[in-house]
Design brief:
The protein is an alpha/beta fold. The protein has two domains: about 150 residues, Leucine Aminopeptidase, subunit E, domain 1, CATH 3.40.220.10; about 325 residues, 3-Layer(aba) Sandwich (Aminopeptidase). About 35% of the residues lie in helices and about 20% in strands. It is elongated. The chain starts with a strand and ends in a 5-residue tail after the last helix. The model has no long low-confidence stretch (mean pLDDT about 95). Bound molecules: ligand BES, manganese (II) ion and zinc ion (ZN). Manganese (II) ion binds next to loops.
Amino acid sequence: METGINRRPLSEVIADAIIVPAFEKEPPPLGVAADEAIKEFYDSGEFTGEKSSFGLLRHPEGLNARRLVLAGCGKREEFDEAVLRRVAGAAIRKHRSKAVRRVALHLEGKLQTAPMASAAVEGALLGDYDPDRYKTDEKKNDKHIETFSIAAPAAPADLDRGHEQGRILAEAQNHARDLGYEPGNVLTPMELARRAQALAQQEGLECDVLDRERMQQLGMGALLGVAQGSAEAPALIVIRYRPRGEALPDVHLGLVGKGVTFDTGGISIKPSQNMDEMKYDMSGGAAALGAIRAIARLKPPVPVTVLVPAVENMPGPKAQRPGDIVKTLSGKTVEVLNTDAEGRLILCDTLTYAQRLGCTHLIDAATLTGSIVVALGHVNTGVFTNDEKLQSRVLAAAKTEGEKMWPMPLDEEYKDELKSPFADLPNIGSRWGGAVTAAYFLKEFADPKPWVHLDIAGTAWLDKDKPEMAKGPTGVAVRTLARVALDWRKE
Ligand code: BES
Ligand code: MN
Ligand code: ZN
């Protein structure tokens, strides 16, 4: 999709459809003859401006477009970038067709800000995305939008910056979504590593892939224990971004993403129902890779290192057993009571390694627990931390990017759940508070560095279409992780 800003008067904008954000009780004055018809639309009650409602006017008078789509935005007082992002995405998903390939979205004067322009392009790019690479139906491309422009007559110059930033962030998010729906037979750990290398090369970043041997030399017993049941070799992907000019002092951000390319549960095998969804158990890794792509293009003055432990969790003659004791890179020993709690096992060694590489602040994203889905459903990502300050940076970034995240507790009392009779730690607690004990386990390896953990098990995947987004992988956390780096100011 080509995107851009069109500064000509609205009457001169050529498109198949013009989307106009419209508020309750406020027929938008476009200054063209169609204003009369818009007013009638409101007066008759056919269109009220209610959120997520649409009104379609064909052959609007005074416009160079065959369709005018009034896109309900609700009350003006409650309007923000998140509403615009959703409305733009939903309008596109609903109205794109063989006949609607060129779309313009009108931004009235008051809304002509860089963040609004950014949100509009993001909504459009995220909305037009479908996880359809494996569909051979040739008609699938008939409905995709070819050009999307923000119609902003006489807009200020900084709208271009907003548009550019939004495009980069949304394309990075779609990149993560591309990885998310790859099936386990295609996206093996080594294939994920190859894709990461290709991404790094394309963006001019350094990439290292640690193989099994190197991990053995280092002593990553927890990560290797998970990997040993699979015929697919594991990989620890490391990508480095370093600012060109002067970097901010005292910060080197480590972004860690869980990269389980398929999670059968291992010997503690999962039930077969919905097991296919476990191909998205690498969504945290995909989020970290998407984030570094955006960071490489937007160039914040903060060094960032991405680390993605990529493994497949399989049962088999070589698989680790419940009761096995492994030695982590940190030196701590772990009793593997449940082989399905594998995410924390690969992340603990990676968090230790990130510190060895000099990371001062750590953020991980992981589809870590079913328990977070019980707690927060599919709406909010769960946020855990050992450092309020870093957490507030992450929550602020999430707010800016319109990604819903909710802080969860991590009191010391939860540590009582993590007692093993034979090793330093077990890899599971009791049934209760599973998302918290999983996070607590990670904290034991992230300490003493400031660290935030995002449990995205409920938010990385949509079971059914939303008006603004196709079902499948969401690319959640890409924009938030990138935003943390972009908005980092001296402490
Ligand atoms: N990948 C799963 C978590 C998950 C569950 C993600 C549902 C998305 C949807 C993780 O590896 C896992 O299996 N966790 C177990 C931990 C348990 C054995 C302590 C869980 O949550 O059931
Ligand atoms: Mn598991
Ligand atoms: Zn898992």
